[in-house]
Amino acid sequence: MKLSFPYMGPTIVYAKLLELLGHDIVMPPRPNQEVIDLGVKYSPEFACFPFKVITGTYLKLMEEDVDTFVTSGGHGPCRAGYYGEAHKRILADLGYDVEMIIIDAPSDDYKYFYNILKKLKGNNSWIKVLQTINIVYKMAQALDELERKVEILRAYNKNSKFNKIWMDIEKNFYKIKNLSDVKNLKAKYIDKLSEFNNTIPAEKERYRIGIVGEIFVVLEKSINYQIEEKVNYFGFETERSQYLSEWIKENIIPFAGRDLEKIANKGREFIEINIGGHARENIGHILDFKERGFDGIIHLKPFACLPELISQSVADSISEKYDIPILTISIDEQTADANILTRIEAFLDMIREKRYREVV
Amino acid sequence: MENLYLGVDIGSVSINIVALDKNNELMFKLYERNSGNPIDVVKNGLKQFKKKINFDKYRMGGVGVTGSGRQLIAYVLGADTVKNEITAHARAATYYYPDVGTIFEIGGQDSKLIIVEDGLAVDFAMNTVCAAGTGSFLDHQAERLGIPIEEFGGLALEAERDVRIAGRCTVFAESDMISKQQYGFTKPEIIKGLSEALVRNYMNNLVRNRVLKEKYIFQGGVAANAGIKAAFEEELDAEIIVPEYYDVMGAVGIAMLARRDILRNKIKTGFRGFEITTEEFKTRSFQCGECANNCEVIEVIADEKIIAVTGDRCGKWTASLEDRVRMDLNRRDASSNLQKNQSKHKSENDIYKNNEDKEKIVRQELEELERSEEISGIKK
Hints:
heterodimer; A: 360 residues; alpha/beta; Rossmann fold; four-stranded parallel sheet; B: alpha/beta; 3 domains; five-stranded mixed sheet; 12 helices; 13 strands
């Protein structure tokens, strides 16, 4: 069984999980023009952008004789729940026979989840599986904690310096074997990043932008045109609505705290019924960011994403009622870098001028 | 000596150059079609500028560049301020009309809506997926009807009847136009229909559910078109103001922003001088391929000498340029013979060669550092 999975965010986390369980894995390629072109060619035209990118990733991996994919499922009206099945059929039409292991939240169907787990467990004991999940979860947490720091510090330093540190972090975390490795690496990089703490200016000179939107385009830099780096470049800190460790905690780890649910409940004011995806969560996050004193929101929406289209249309009324600027950016393979840069720069200029004026 | 501030707007269809004096009076204005080589157009523009201005009385105070082609030209000119066109347009409009409420800006391939409150941009929108509703749409249709674009707008006012043209897409608009022509509608009527279609697109795609407030300013190249202006006035049932320098407002705005930055930060301009009109500029790009990011690295070369590197996310190539510039400067100080220097530069310019040895050393140092850090980390 040769395993692979879609490329999204800190992909080393899933790679590590499967690797530590003793599977033969192939690291998927980071989405680039070639992968996107492949995906666009073989996906239905009206499918959402993440679907197309994942199609491209799978097809590219066919060159490496991968026969099994592990991917996430989902429930509710969002089409992401059908991704696995649809991809399987697209690949079958092209003559590739692959197995899809679709991970749904255990709360959806305990039995199914147990069977999937058994498949992935292989010959390992259950204790080993739990240990592995623990290591990987701690690793995801460490990565997320470091990335949050990078997202703040990069705003006040040269982008390239922190991009390089982040690349080092990803590279070195991929080498970990056990919990103490995770601890040591985390401590090392926290120390390294703390050296730059003095570059953060006084509280009233800090600008913060919250980034919300569909999970794939929010997490995956190569798809969202490195939006965080662009915002940081103009001297604005960023924080995302989604971090992988939080997603794991909410969806996979049983009985863990449900902080995100509280945030999502704030979104009820604008979206009363569950429309799938992260629409209501995102509205909740916008309100949460506002309460925490953020200066603006960038909302990322894959072209043809239904839930985010709805959250875009309520964004206007949130913006007006809670006085927070929101910029929605629609992302697909047609988007040009220069165009995104212009929008972001104008948006950030607007926020800066506004604050400047209020102080004067 | 009085300072002049140069504003350059590199649009997709036109390139505009203006110069403002310290009182924001327009001293020089140039509107040129972008023929596909912006550097040449800017060079010619600078030649004209140099001829027209008396440089015994004036000197260059600052340079600002805006527009979709701003990055490259900013390197060529040594610009002090490089900003997007939305901010630039808002700046110029609010300067001339402090009580403006809504700015419509329609250029060659972008259309923008800027909402202003108390002289401050508070909201904006820009066309997203489609060029219907921009100048290129009109350009294309004018060509199809065989009418010069300059006369195009005026003709719409001669229309006697209304005709609705499908304006969702430039290509489909064309097929609709052909069929409407066969029904016997005249050219002015078709043009009027097109103007209305453009405004309808603009309203649907950009304005959407926003509430627009007086006063309305209409700028950008398309503001020259009387038919569009009339269509806007009919749609909004209000007066639309077209500023005197409607076609170069982006350049005016960026010149003002450059002046503000220079004064606020108390810096000297980085303008590279008028010699650039004789220099030869080139760009080249390559894919780095050293990691999964696969950055597209772009180099700007002036007279065989690399003046800028951009696009690398880890800073590897940018840093190598900075090192080289430092080396060049040292050498320039050491030797007064410029001619000799330049030939030396040439041999130094092969960045692939240049980096190999240095990189090895850096990599070794990093590895050693990492090893020692790892050891100390475990001890901790």
